[in-house]
Amino acid sequence: MTDIDTVAALIKSGRINRVVVLVGAGISTTAGIPDFRSPNTGIYERLKPLNLPYPEAIFHINYFQHTPEPFYAIARARHPRTLKPTITHAFLALLAKKNLLYFLFTQNIDGLEHDAGVPEDKILNAHGSWQTQRCWKCETPYPDDLMKQAIAKGVVPYCQVPDCGGAVKPDVVFFGESLPAEFDQQQKKVPEADLMLVMGTSLKVAPCSVLPRQVHLGVPRVLINRETAGDFGKRPEDVCILKNCDEGVHELADVLGWADEMGQLWRDAVARKEEVQEDWGEEESLDELIDKYAKKVKNSRNISDGHKRMLEEHLGQKFAGILAPGK
Ligand code: CNA
User: Fold this and answer.
1) Which residues are the active-site ones (predicted)?
2) How far is the CA of 202 from the centre of ligand 1 (A)?
3) Is any atom of ligand 1 closer than 6 Å to the C-beta of 223?
4) Spatial separation of the C-alpha atoms in residues 167 and 169, rounded to whole Å
């Protein structure tokens, strides 16, 4: 019996009614958005030309507060507007349709679970989303149309409140920020699971990384991921399917006899997303945007606008002026 057969047999037994799912960036890589940590293809490795103090800095609130430029330089390539749900997202929608999905924790900020048709009340976007935005300093919301323009152009949008001057940040949870209050409430559902499914995550980011450990001993935990993660494999009831998520859910759906239904859900979701595609002008890849920004920083003698502002604040306008490009 293969691992896929084991999981399918559990689901077919009728004893599974409360599947709690945790997903991460790996379920969206085939939609065209790179994850953080995969070697060569992950964002962290590709950010090297930017000479950041450390790769996570670009998503760290302390860094963003004085240097938001790198985040916006690549935001266009990370914004989910053009992304379409994958077959793995459709599998999640199918779990919900079959009343098996008890709750879904997603660490992703691309909203593709929603786009695939998973009901809103079954999803916690644990790390927020791009749907809304506000000033990091005074928390005043910022208009959607202006935010779109800023992302499309790769420029930093600033708060419109007089004398505030804070950079606007999408409501995604940066490193150094707290998760939504709802997380504490929803994580109580984990010990109520009769099966936990974890897909596409390295389980390196707390607190989501601890969720699989909150499943009761004896309750099956299934990992579908390219590599092993967290403490998976330590419990006798663990099932580790080490392959691409889309491949894993395809095989599972085949054995369960769900393949046609899943395929239809996926096609419908893709068609819905295609209908609302917006034209943001010429597309530039993540690497092109990184390259462009790296050159810009180099030409301005490695002093970003954010650093200049910081110098101005701390050392005074005159001194910062000496470091301005071309001086
Ligand atoms: P991560 O640390 O980059 O890990 C991704 C995991 O998925 C790794 O173990 C990979 O081996 C695995 N993986 C990659 N592609 C596939 C695939 N096709 N099939 C199976 N496995 C695959 O990302 P995590 O999600 O664990 O880390 C949490 C971060 C990533 C959260 O803060 C997210 O907001 C953030 N993130 C989100 C997105 C998104 O919204 N799509 C993209 C990039 C990063």
Assistant:
1) 127
2) 7
3) no
4) 6
To the query of whether residue 307 is one of the catalytic residues in this protein, the response is: no
Distance 88 CA to ligand 1 centre (A): 13
- Provide the 10 A C-beta neighbour count for residue 64: 24
Atom 13 of ligand 1, nearest CA residue: 26
- Fold type of domain 1-33+85-121+182-276: Rossmann fold (3.40.50)
| For the chain, domain boundaries | 1-33+85-121+182-276, 129-172
Which atom of ligand 1 is least distant from the CA of 244?
Answer: 19
Does the pLDDT value for residue 206 go beyond 60?
yes
Q: Record the tokens describing residue 8, joined without a space.
A: 């399918």
Determine if ligand 1 sits within 6 Å of the CB of residue 308. Answer: no
Lookup: tokens for 217? 């001993």
Q: Would you say 223 and 240 are in contact if contact means Cβ atoms under 8 Å apart?
A: yes
- Measured over the CA atoms of residue 210, residue 216, residue 222 and residue 228, the dihedral's sign is positive
